[in-house]
Task: inverse folding
């Protein structure tokens, strides 16, 4: 009988851990090979754009951001994460090319013969880091 109480408790603990992980903002930055590698810039000076600028520029790399949808990550926090990541590789702006809410994980609940699969949604963003020609 102890086993039956212990297994659901473990599943609930794992689910709580997964949900906690989804509430943070994670970012991965990739610098392009062969692109310029300028000195870092100030995050406060990095622009966030929704379309490619007409001003001459070079692409430095890209940023992929994973954020939860539970309200713990505000839009301003996501924008700040984009700015700080772009500044780290010398960017003047980030052009957001992908911004969607989509399933990022799933879990199974219910008794053995009547299980239900539920998804956990998260916000995914992708931005191209650019530097204006000087």
Result:
């Amino acid at each position: 009988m102890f086993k039956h109480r212990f297994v659901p408790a473990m599943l609930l603990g794992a689910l709580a851990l997964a949900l906690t992980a989804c509430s943070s903002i994670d970012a991965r930055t990739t610098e392009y090979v062969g692109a310029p590698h300028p000195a870092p810039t100030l995050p406060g000076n990095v622009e966030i754009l929704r379309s490619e600028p007409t001003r001459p520029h070079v692409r430095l790399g890209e940023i992929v951001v994973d954020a939860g949808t539970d309200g713990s990550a505000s839009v301003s926090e996501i924008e700040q994460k984009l700015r700080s990541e772009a500044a780290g590789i010398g960017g003047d702006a980030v052009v957001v090319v992908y911004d969607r809410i989509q399933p990022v994980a799933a879990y199974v609940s219910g008794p053995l013969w009547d299980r239900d699969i539920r998804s956990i949604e998260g916000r995914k963003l992708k931005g191209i880091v650019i530097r204006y020609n000087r």
Remarks:
- Confidence is low (pLDDT under 50) at residues 14-22.
- Residues 83 and 121 are 24 Å apart (CA to CA).
- The beta strands are 25-31, 47-49, 57-68, 93-109, 116-132.
